[in-house]
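User: Please fill in residues for this 154-position structure.
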């Protein structure tokens, strides 16, 4: 093509786009996709993204962690992160955080003399009532019942 013809630059751009599209089609259908995505969980987050998000949640149990912040930690858009996180962990981010809080609360109930109200604050709940509702939903027992079953303090 000669550059002085009308629309020749547009044609060149279109051909470049077509070549890129054809290459993407060819390489995106590789049988051994591991060449490019070897650290990806099965159609979910990359291992480093999942680890970074899980660590962030564990380090910030008492905080009100937004989905936007968590997605930023993994370097993804909010929608994409939420979808991929659930594929990787089997739980949406808010349910995963709730599970982490529940596990930490169980540990504190079994090993410390902290009151239920203090534990509620440590694991990110504003009121003991909200904490107790979450705890019962996760474990099937109230925090006090759980502590008694564990033969712990009180």
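Assistant: Residues filled in for all 154 positions:
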């Amino acid at each position: 093509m000669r550059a002085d013809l009308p629309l020749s630059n547009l044609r060149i751009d279109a051909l470049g786009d077509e070549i890129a599209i054809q290459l993407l089609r060819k390489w995106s259908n590789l049988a051994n996709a591991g060449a490019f995505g070897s650290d990806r969980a099965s159609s979910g987050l990359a291992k480093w993204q999942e680890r970074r998000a899980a660590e962030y949640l564990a380090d910030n149990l008492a905080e009100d962690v937004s989905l936007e912040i968590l997605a930023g930690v993994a370097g993804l858009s909010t929608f994409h992160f939420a979808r991929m996180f659930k594929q990787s962990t089997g739980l949406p981010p808010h349910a995963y955080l709730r599970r982490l809080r529940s596990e930490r609360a169980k540990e504190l109930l079994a090993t410390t003399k902290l009151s239920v109200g203090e534990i509620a604050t440590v694991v990110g709940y504003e009121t003991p009532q909200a904490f107790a509702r979450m705890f019962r939903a996760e474990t099937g027992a109230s925090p006090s019942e759980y502590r008694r079953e564990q033969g712990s303090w009180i």
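For context: The radius of gyration is 25 Å.
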